[in-house]
Design goal:
Blueprint lengths: L1 E3 L2 E5 L20 E5 L8 H16 L5 E5 L3 H9 L8 E3 L1 E8 L4 E8 L5 H5 L20 E3 L3 H4 L7
Parallel strand pairs: 2-3, 3-4, 4-5
Antiparallel strand pairs: 1-2, 6-7, 6-8
């Protein structure tokens, strides 16, 4: 955990499972909690319960009034979309990984996106989302990339409620 003025940063260093032990002690002046999920590679049902109990108690026992998820991987997005309170009501997703697939070279990879860079029309038409990304991660290929999930379902967390 690092802090700067009103923002408290929490980097999750491992998976969310039965071995997870979370702790965070925001200072009195902290109003925003930024949670970095970059290193989380697995989430199971026990980890979901631990996470929800942890984040709920943290919000209730502190001055945190905003939670920001950073570097949310596919398993985090899946939980946001399907488990109530995984992303608290005061939470937003700042950045996430979109799973992609290159049909020509049969490689899967992830593109990090910032939600602030997605325009309103894109969010309104999630089911028609198409990316024009060259396979620059695999330069020998240069084929068109496909989204390796159903965009409307995967990106449901972006839709205004």
């Amino acid at each position: 955990m690092t802090d700067d003025n009103t923002i408290c940063h929490l980097t999750l260093e491992s998976n969310l499972d039965e071995t997870t032990q979370l702790s965070c002690q925001p200072a009195e002046q902290h109003e925003t909690l930024v949670v970095d999920f970059e290193k989380v590679k697995l989430i199971n049902s026990t980890g979901i319960g631990i996470w929800i109990n942890f984040i709920t108690a943290l919000i209730e026992q502190s001055n945190i009034n905003k939670v920001i998820f950073r570097n949310a991987r596919r398993m985090v997005i899946n939980q946001i979309n399907s488990v109530k309170d995984f992303l608290p009501a005061i939470g937003t997703v700042e950045s996430f990984y979109l799973p992609l697939y290159c049909e020509r070279c049969s490689k899967q990879f992830n593109q990090r996106l910032k939600t602030s860079e997605l325009d309103v029309e894109t969010v309104k038409n999630l089911d028609n989302l198409a990316l024009e990304i060259d396979c620059d991660q695999f330069p020998d290929c240069r084929s068109e990339i496909e989204i390796d999930t159903l965009p409307g379902k995967y990106l449901a967390f972006l839709k205004p409620t």
